[in-house]
């Protein structure tokens, strides 16, 4: 045996010397493993109907048209920080859809349906990872719930937006998503840029957590190119995928820890110029929450008011906004589901839907005033 040869080529027999060596080096920090359902099996259990597929495909084209500037409406991505109660989310979705119906000439509502919560250290990681909110990590159940939620949203006729954090989970539900997002913590990740290059929907890249916009612009450029990257097939087989590149990637301004908010006119204009310098469309989505609101949900109204003023003053780079909103404002600590306030976030604090609707109406007025006469 040379130094390059493996210690063993087949699984070692228990009791053998090779088994002793393997046991000392292999998976020594893995406590246990459970089988993961395959994307194909989950799709068989929860199939996409022709009507739902038509809704999603139409929404994707509409979002692309808005973000490219050929549709004068504005994108409004609205919903809770993360999904913890599918019933409450669908309740919110139906009410949001009804409230936005009179505004359909000016804004396209997209429901924020985020299943994964990125964590700096520890905390609840979202519906897919822990659907029972108790640390049991029934991920197969979480994937089932996530796909069911997106199918129900499509049945309502609403487009859905979701962040892609885990690079394999998307295979279980990506065909149900109308707008994808890559978050501030993963915008510099090569594998997330490669993933975005193969996604079938428009994708937004947030600026870095410190406020750096250039890393997101680099991500947009990278995702527009073809890549080879490892992932899963729908059958659950590890494979190397070859993407064609995604021409519909956009910058999301969300503020930052070092730079502070970046929704003000000077910051918006600077971001538009930076995009043009890279021969990219000067098309921006502004997140009214996170660094732009200093995580104070009430400050989202101030951010949106500034964006409305900019729109009315002729700033055409603003093509979308994000608002964190739920049925009940604020947030609550994680607890057993039966003890939680219905429709209130368990992660970042949100505006109530009652507070959000006037903001969407204000946004629609600004879009109408900014649009040239037909």
UniProtKB/TrEMBL annotation:
Pathway: Metabolic intermediate biosynthesis; chorismate biosynthesis; chorismate from D-erythrose 4-phosphate and phosphoenolpyruvate: step 1/7
E.C. number(s) listed in UniProt: 2.5.1.54
Keyword annotations from UniProtKB, A to Z: Amino-acid biosynthesis, Aromatic amino acid biosynthesis, Transferase
InterPro entries to which the protein is assigned, alphabetical: Aldolase_TIM (IPR013785), DAHP1/KDSA (IPR006218), DAHP_synth_1 (IPR006219)
MF terms in GO: 3-deoxy-7-phosphoheptulonate synthase activity; identical protein binding
Catalytic activity from the UniProt record: D-erythrose 4-phosphate + phosphoenolpyruvate + H2O = 7-phospho-2-dehydro-3-deoxy-D-arabino-heptonate + phosphate
Positions of the DAHP synthetase I/KDSA domain: 65-356
Pfam family membership, one: DAHP_synth_1
GO annotation, cellular component aspect: cytoplasm
Keyword hit for Acyltransferase: no
Record's keyword annotation contains Amino-acid biosynthesis: yes
Top EC class of this enzyme: transferase
Gene Ontology biological process terms from the UniProt entry: amino acid biosynthetic process; aromatic amino acid family biosynthetic process; chorismate biosynthetic process
Function: Stereospecific condensation of phosphoenolpyruvate (PEP) and D-erythrose-4-phosphate (E4P) giving rise to 3-deoxy-D-arabino-heptulosonate-7-phosphate (DAHP).
Recorded family membership: Belongs to the class-I DAHP synthase family.
Protein name: Phospho-2-dehydro-3-deoxyheptonate aldolase
């Amino acid at each position: 045996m040379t130094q390059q040869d493996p210690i063993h080529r087949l699984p070692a027999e228990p009791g053998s010397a090779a088994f002793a060596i393997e046991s000392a080096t292999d998976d020594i920090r893995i406590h246990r493993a459970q089988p993961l359902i395959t994307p194909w099996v989950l799709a068989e259990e929860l199939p996409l109907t022709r009507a739902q597929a038509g809704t999603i495909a139409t929404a994707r084209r509409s979002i692309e048209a808005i973000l490219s500037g050929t549709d004068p409406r504005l994108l409004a991505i609205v919903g809770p920080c993360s999904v913890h109660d599918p019933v409450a989310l669908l309740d919110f979705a139906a009410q949001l859809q009804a409230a936005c119906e009179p505004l359909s000439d000016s804004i396209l509502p997209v429901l924020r349906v985020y299943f994964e919560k990125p964590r700096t250290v520890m905390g609840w990681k979202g519906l897919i990872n822990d659907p029972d909110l108790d640390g049991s990590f029934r991920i197969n159940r979480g994937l089932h719930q996530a796909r069911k939620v997106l199918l129900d949203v499509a049945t309502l006729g609403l487009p859905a937006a979701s962040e892609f954090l885990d690079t394999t989970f998307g295979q279980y539900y990506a065909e149900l998503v109308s707008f994808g997002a890559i978050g501030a913590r993963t915008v510099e990740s090569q594998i997330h840029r490669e993933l975005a290059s193969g996604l079938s929907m428009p994708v937004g890249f947030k600026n870095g957590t410190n406020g750096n916009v250039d890393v997101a612009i680099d991500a947009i450029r990278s995702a527009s190119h073809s890549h080879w990257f490892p992932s899963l097939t729908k059958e659950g087989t590890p494979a190397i995928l070859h993407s064609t590149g995604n021409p519909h990637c956009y910058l999301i301004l969300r503020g930052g820890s070092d730079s502070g908010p970046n929704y003000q006119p000077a910051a918006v204009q600077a971001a538009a110029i930076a995009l043009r310098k890279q021969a990219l469309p000067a098309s921006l989505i502004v997140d009214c929450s996170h660094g732009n609101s200093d995580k104070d949900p009430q400050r989202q109204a101030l951010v949106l008011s500034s964006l409305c003023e900019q729109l009315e003053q002729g700033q055409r780079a603003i093509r979308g906004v994000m608002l964190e909103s739920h049925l009940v404002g604020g947030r609550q600590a994680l607890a057993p589901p039966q003890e939680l306030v219905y429709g209130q976030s368990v992660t970042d604090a949100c505006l109530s839907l009652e507070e959000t609707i006037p903001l969407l109406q204000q946004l629609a007025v600004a879009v109408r005033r900014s649009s040239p006469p037909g």
